């Protein structure tokens, strides 16, 4: 449900600027992950450049990670979005996705005009832009607080420090096992050599 809503919203923004689909069309058939676990969505790029939601266990070719605390910044200008998004995976696909995200803009007045008509949509959209210009920092702080709650209180997100420590522990364990295997092989070779000489 959430996956389809997120992809529908992304496709709606693409539809408002359909020239951006041209940048995604060469990557038709490739998979991209949007968001951050547990709210990550995996989508397939269609031949027309739009996205189609896939099951969450599909392996993506590139990932667009948007920390929960940075979600409000996605409504801001390109500079704010650039700082909020982390892209990884296939370099060409990641670059194309990055360009699309930087150019993507929500045309509030177009959506409002369908609901309320042009006369009402223009002043409401202008008010929205003024509101966002003066309050985006408060929304960013609210996003950070929600992310901290989701990580520390609700247990919905992993603590990056704990994850990093866990990964380092796994690397250390792997290296220790490799050293132990090498030592066992050496002892086995020495024992074989001693047995042969006897």
From TrEMBL:
GO cellular component, one term: cytoplasm
Pathway: Cofactor biosynthesis; ubiquinone biosynthesis
Matches recorded under InterPro entries: SCP2_sterol-bd_dom, UbiJ
Keywords: Coiled coil, Cytoplasm, Ubiquinone biosynthesis
Residue ranges the record marks as coiled coil: 163-190
Similarity remark: Belongs to the UbiJ family.
Protein name from the UniProt record: Ubiquinone biosynthesis accessory factor UbiJ
Source organism phylogeny: Bacteria, Pseudomonadati, Pseudomonadota, Betaproteobacteria, Neisseriales
């Amino acid at each position: 449900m959430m996956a389809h809503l997120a992809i529908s919203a992304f496709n709606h923004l693409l539809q408002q600027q359909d020239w951006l689909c041209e940048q995604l069309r060469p990557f038709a058939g490739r998979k991209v992950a949007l968001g951050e676990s547990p709210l990550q969505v995996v989508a397939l790029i269609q031949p027309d450049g739009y996205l189609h939601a896939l099951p969450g266990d599909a392996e993506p070719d590139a990932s667009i990670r948007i920390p929960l605390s940075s979600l409000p910044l996605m409504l801001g200008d390109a500079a704010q979005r650039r700082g909020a998004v982390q892209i990884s995976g296939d370099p060409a696909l990641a670059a194309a996705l990055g360009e699309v995200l930087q150019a993507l803009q929500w045309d509030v007045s177009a959506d409002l005009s369908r609901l309320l008509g042009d006369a009402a949509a223009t002043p409401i959209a202008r008010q929205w832009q003024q509101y966002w210009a003066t309050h985006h920092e408060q929304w960013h702080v609210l996003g950070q607080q929600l992310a901290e709650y989701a990580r520390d209180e609700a247990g919905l997100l992993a603590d990056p420090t704990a994850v990093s420590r866990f990964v380092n522990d796994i690397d250390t364990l792997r290296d220790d096992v490799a050293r132990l295997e090498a030592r066992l092989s050496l002892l086995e070779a020495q024992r074989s050599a001693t047995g042969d000489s006897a």
